[in-house]
Amino acid sequence: MARDSPILLILSSHNLKFLFNISFIVISMEREPQGYRNRLNNKCQFLRLAHRYEDTKAGPEHQPTWTSAVYVNGVEYGRATGRSRDVAREAAAQIAFEALV
């Protein structure tokens, strides 16, 4: 079996009738897709480019708005806003990644 192939297990409810009241169970061990921050990091490492994030927070403490900018070799490649720093960074990383590809 190939390394990246998902593992699939199907059990009928007949075999598990005393344990579960379901028709079948599917268990898949697929890898999660890479996020854009991870993709951008890998792309910059491959191209030997330095990148950094600059984050700012605005608005009330109970409902802040985060703005993140991604700089690659000192040039801004992406800027985005979101309800959390992670959401803003992910969106900015997507913009920067797509600009580099």
TrEMBL record:
InterPro entries for the chain: dsRBD_dom
GO function term, MF aspect, one: RNA binding
Highest taxon of the lineage: Eukaryota
UniProt-listed Gene3D superfamilies: 3.30.160.20
Pfam family, one: dsrm
Keyword entries, A-Z: RNA-binding
PROSITE patterns: DS_RBD
DRBM domain location: 35-101
Protein name: DRBM domain-containing protein
